[in-house]
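Predict the structure of SusC/RagA family TonB-linked outer membrane protein.
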Amino acid sequence: MDNNALNCGKPFKWLPAKLLLIMKLIIVLMTTFLIQASAVGYAQRVTLNETGASLGNIINKIRLQTGYDFVFNSKEVGNAKKVTVNLKNVQLEEALRVLFRNQDLTYSVKDKFIVIEAAKPSFMDNLRAVFVNIDVRGRIVDSVTGNPLPGATVSVKGRRQGVRTGTDGTFLLQNVEEDVTVVISYTGYTTKEVPAAKELGTIRMEVAIGNLEEVAVTVNTGYQRIKPEQSTGAVAQIGTKEYESRVSSNFLDGLVNRLPGLMINNSVQFTSTTPGVGETTRPLFNIRGISTMSANQSPLIVVDGYPTELTLDMIDPNEIKSVTILKDAASATVYGVRASNGVIIIERKQATPGAAQFNFRSTLGLTPEENYSRYRWDPEASGINASYTRERQALIVNPSSWNALFAPGPITGGNIGRSIPYYIQAQLVAGIITPAQAESSFAELANYDNLEDYSRLFQRTAVSQTNTLNISGGVPDALYYITANYTGNRNNAILNDNNRFQLTGRTTLKLAKRLSLELITEYQENRANSAPIPGAAEFAGYERYEDVNGNPAAIISKSYAPVYNNVLLSQGFLDQNYYSLIEANKVSNKTRTLNYKTIANFNYNIGKGFNLLFGGVYETSRTEFRHLAAQGSNEVNAMVNTYTVTPTTANPSLVFKRNLPDGDFLRQQNTSSTGYTARTQLNYNKRIGNHSLNGIAGAEMRRVLNKSNLASYFGYNDQSLLHQPVDYASIINGVTGVRGTLVTSNPLEALNTLFNQTYDDDRYVSAFSNIVYSFKDTYSLSGSIRIDQSNLFGSDPKYKYKPLWSLGAAWNIHKEDFMNDINWLHQLKLRAAYGFNGNVAKLSLPQVIAQAQNNTQNTPTLPSLVLFSNANTGLRWEQTENLNFGLDYDIFKNITGSLEYYTKKTTDVMGNSSIDPTLGASSALVNYATIRNNGLEFSLKTDWISTKNFNWNTGIVVAKNNSKVLDVYRTGRYDPQILDLLGYVSGYPVGAMFSYDTRGLNNEGHPIIYDQNGASYVVNTSTTGTPLVTAMSDKNSGLVQYSGTTIPTISGGLSNRVDVGDFYFFAMINYYGGFKVRVPRPTPAETRPLLGSNNFWRVAGDEAKTDIPNLTDLNSFAPGLAYRYNSNYVVSGDYMTLGDVTVSYRLNDVNFIKKAGFKNFEIKAQASNLYSVGFNRYNFSMATGSYAKSYLTPTYTLGLFTNF
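Done. Here is the predicted structure for SusC/RagA family TonB-linked outer membrane protein.
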């Protein structure tokens, strides 16, 4: 409280508060003494004649006439009603009575002081208010974007009663008279007045015209904020209400199909083979398609104004205020060589001035175990697999096969990994068991299925839990926002779980009149535990995890030959059978990750539209990975046995010796990533008449340093933390008498999996500028430019200083005079932009990249270098040329949206190309390939009904993207098996799929394929090595045919939210289309055969009822290709899912909730992944994760959301 005395109501704001208070007390005491000494000399009568005067002026005149001084709160007096009074020579008491008659203030006379205080309501006033007054609720949003306006002032007109809106734009104004007017004001927006009511619903605020400095812009590019009508780029945004309509434990979940052009799909995987990397499979996460082969395919993530190097789990979905995606050059070029994949701008919630506000959120999610009875597996899977294996082994087993299992040899020999049917067949042929015993054994295999035991032993209900506590508040010059979050996840697989703790603090301090500081600090700790849990279909259904006594049973197909294993045990070797239950409990992986982030921004207001930003971000991440295999596990036993010396025929004098000590095996890897960005930026934002200019210019430095260290220990004891020494040098050079090599066939490669160090240092220096000019808020032009330098680029001056730039234009057609008569059209804006942005691939460097290792081809081994990449002085960033046209609309004040058309052509894509062989290789990674993307995007948001107690909102998002690889170097086989893994084939879309035109079988059970001219060919085992097999891998043979792309070209989302009073209902439907999927073909050779797998060709005539080849062809190369890559089983991949259904109810009006002091008390229930339908003859939806699974596994979530 600012109590003022003897100052006519004008506070000495330049003095510290405590000093001012002491001065006031001293003056009061001195004045009191003087007044008492000379009271007789002061006049006691008052003469006033004022009209509409402020109470402060009246008080000053009374003080001068009477000598009385006043003690009061300057804010309370300043808010008092205007005074009209005509008094002539009246007593002071009469003057005071008239003066305060209609004021919400009281006065008291104490000696020569008049103390003014706020009037306190009487008991009857309070009692009357309980029955007459109401609580007013509502939500304040921007009229164009629908985003909430936190910190807006909501007050009663003519009263001092008021509140500010929360981060979601909602407010609660309590104990308000029913006949008053509510005033809503927000900086940069036109003030609104509405009659008071219990539910005011959603109040849309319109941007005020004419004061650019005060306009709260809504388009955030990370570097600057731009008025929506001035933006020329392709931008899409989601606000707090839309984002929080569903309960999200993962940041990306709340964005799926909510923003046009943003593809997030974890069910559809894109597989590609990149030179220098190999085969990789990634979920789809991109903006406007895939435009690179070896560089990062994901969008750039910007949090609180700076790109982040940390993982997405660092982003707490409970803190999201808005998410904006930048899709074209006009909006994203300012980010330079990191913006080719688009940019996602994340703006988090901030504090508003006022008392401390507490926000607590808690959610609990349950995901049930898998129901394997609903899978498309054949119910006779065990019998089918056993029967097939029996028939297959009958072709190769001979009387000596059983004895061969006992023959000593290398671990990689024929006595490892045999199936149970093989052992039965081998014993039968060797005469060890009778045919009746063999039949009984096979029947026992067919009558057992391990799925029930698998679920009991390895599966459970998954549980996820989140708790978030937030406290925020402060005064305008010092705001704080602190959040603590805990997330715990227990996975469906036993012994697999993870948890996360995160603490975030954000504060804004006004250090001086023109200088402010924004400081953000984050700490996060992640812990994850995992164990080697087998997959449900990893082993044949007849394999047992437990014996009849409940003890762990050996998985025969993954074990050393059981009978020979007993011989090894008798010789002193360790048990090398594989027990899934033992391995799950003796082998563990523990990961601990610590993330830390600090952002500091100093903002100096120079004046006249200029302000200077100097700041930066520092991020560090440290991960500790710990793999521990306990003594007795198959992993440890296999390594010890591998390096155990035994007498051999060639060296019978050798003595049994273990070269690896007893104990556990520990592998530890520590990785760290440290990155910083330092930025200096000058901003200019000014409006002069009809001209507006919003520009930035700046420079930044960025460095990212990654390091890792891998070390391994044998003979480790987890209690004492000690380990035993190992003679690695002897192992590398070869140990006579050992039964194999350590883990791999190359000892040095194995050593690299035990000990390794990496170091990666990337540095960038950049300069950038972006300018937006607007005339009459009707016509806008924008331009941006950025130059990036990095140690990753070559020294060729042709590319070194090549800038990335963009130009854009916008026309607000609805502001033209000829549009004035169209009342239903509130916005119509046409946009166009052209420019370039880039991407960085790190598989090649300006220098030679080589790895030091020993040449194991020589004895003894010699030091050598493995060449990874030649020096490339012309190395440069991948460049994307963007052209975008957009149309934004707002009709009938309740329907808004946009329509976009774009083309993207990425050149200089890093890929393989032929080079001069004298350089040491026939091909190298160079800037060679070209990829083109183009498409359409449409979005619509509508408020069908918007009243105080009922609202219905719909959101529609549709995006179509077509891609084509225009130029890429390719040699080698050209068959569907290779091409499907390649991902990039010249002349076809990214993710192209290829097949054979296979049309059934001949009368011998061999597949028949056709070329593009209709000629037929029979494919069988005898064709191996023939011209036909060569033709099956030849690009020009006409046998390999294009079947479509594996990446959805169309994505769409339909969201609906219905609010009825304190209740709301939200549902989300997702659609993906325009792509193909290959349905797996049934085969009895699978460990878990699909339905129909037993219907393979056996005798002539079967070709009329099956297309599954004969027993031999199923496992032969060429016939197997013709069957598995049959174009008849490439079907539409289009599918639709009912992604989320959320219901919420606010209990704010419940008495005990009010008495407990809660401003908001909301309960939400959500069901996710409820249903999916595939638009093909199999009803196969990729959302299920695999063809075998015919349903979605739902997740049920219950949440509590409170404010107090």
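The CA atoms of residues 206 and 632 lie 72 Å apart.
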